[in-house]
Amino acid sequence: MSTDPKARRSLTAWLIPLATFAAGIAVAMVSIPRPASEVPAASEPTFGAYSSPATSPAATSPSNSAVDSELLLQRDINTRFVEQLRRYETRLRDIATASEEEGAPLAAEAMRDFALETEILIDRYDLIVKNK
Asked: Does 132 fall in a domain?
């Protein structure tokens, strides 16, 4: 048994853990993810039951310019993609002819098959555009 009285803890021994705790709470509050804000829905659906002009509520209401511009952008992208496919189809047929002339009938046949698949994609796009 010691006869020395218990030493009192210094003020800094209490302040350091308290400051660390407060800093931890501040960091936690800042780093908590906030809920995402609600994204306003388009007033006109672009796909599904209302995608045809006859049943679309847009026939009676003003059109949504954001949806219209998005549709125009997608059509432009699709049109350019199909134009590129048309060039590839022509080039594939040219390569197939050259391969056959050089004595590679299997390569020529594979190129013609690929050109035919490309032509089918192009025809399907043309049919979709024609029906719109």
From this structure: yes
Question: Over the stretch 16-67, which tens digit does the pLDDT of each residue have?
Answer: 888 888 888 888 888 887 776 665 555 555 555 445 555 555 455 556 888 8
- Cβ–Cβ < 8 Å for 98, 128: no
In a domain, 46, yes or no: no
Tokens 């003020």, residue located: 11
Q: Which residues, 6+ apart, have CB-to-CB distance to 73 below 8 Å?
A: none
Of 50, 46, 51, residue with least CA distance to 70: 46
- The length of the chain, given as a count of residues: 132
Domain that holds residue 128: 65-132
